[in-house]
Amino acid sequence: MKPVIISHESYQDFVLSILKEHYSGGILTLVNKDWTVIHKLWITDLSYVTTWLFGSYSNKGPAPRDPASMLRSYLLCLLTNPTLSITDWVDMLYRVPLYAILSGFNPNDVPGVGTFYYFFKRLWGNQSPNIKPSIKHKHKKKKKKKPKKGEKEPIKKSGLVKKLVQRLSMVVLFIPLIKIIHDYLLKHLDHLKHGILFTKDELL
User: Fold this and answer.
1) From CA 100, how far away is CA 70, in angstroms rounded?
2) Is 37 exposed, middle or buried (CB count within 10 Å of its CB: 0-12, 13-18, 19+)?
3) Which residues are bridge partners to 11 per DSSP?
């Protein structure tokens, strides 16, 4: 199901009402360092995230968690407890109502671990888990053993000698033909000067 876009003003109203409900009776209190985090999230509008990820949600199925609240909750984790895993952060949302409220959740209804990972998958928007392909480690080349004194280096390519023999054999075959052509040119040098390649007798 497609998510419902919740404006930043609606988030601020939610935070005020739920904070009054849980922190006005004197049982729960806010300390000075809490106000720094409250202020950062109070002025940060993340409602555009829902519009940005709208196409990644299906038209059918159960109503999803608010994408802006999911991202806000993860940012809150990085601001307060950056070393926590997602599993530990979900436990923290249950144990510390302030974190759930600032995320945009009711303290009695926080998303599970799987919901966070599904959200990260949509947020990433790529089939590959990495931006760059995995790096292939280069294989180390084996060190070549140097021949001992008095020993000859082995032939690197066995086909090299075979090719050399074939080429030499071709040259040997063409030597008689080259000699015949050479003798013919010397014999008919005068005719060639006048553009005559064969005499009449040779053609007959």
Assistant:
1) 10
2) middle
3) none
Q: What pLDDT, in 10s, does the model give residues 177-190?
A: 555 555 655 565 55
Partners of residue 106 on adjacent β-strands: 109
Radius of gyration of the chain (CA): 42
- DSSP, residue by residue, 87-139: HHHHHHHHH-HHHHHHHT-BTTB---HHHHHHHHHHHH--SSSSSSPPPPPPP
Contact present, 76 and 94 (Cβ < 8 Å): no
Cα 64 from chain centre: 28
pTM of the model: 0.61
> Which tokens is 169 given?
């054999």
Q: What pLDDT was estimated at residue 31? A: 86
pLDDT in tens, 94-152: 999 999 999 999 999 999 999 999 999 888 876 666 656 666 666 666 676 676 666 66
CA distance 27 to 183: 120
Residues 6+ apart with CB under 8 A from 66: 3, 4, 6, 50, 104
Alpha-carbon span 131 to 146, nearest angstrom? 44
| CA 44 – CA 72 distance, rounded (Å) | 9
Q: Give the model confidence (pLDDT) of 131-145 as tens digits.
A: 566 666 666 666 766
Would you state the structure tokens that stand for residue 124, as one six-digit string?
């990433």
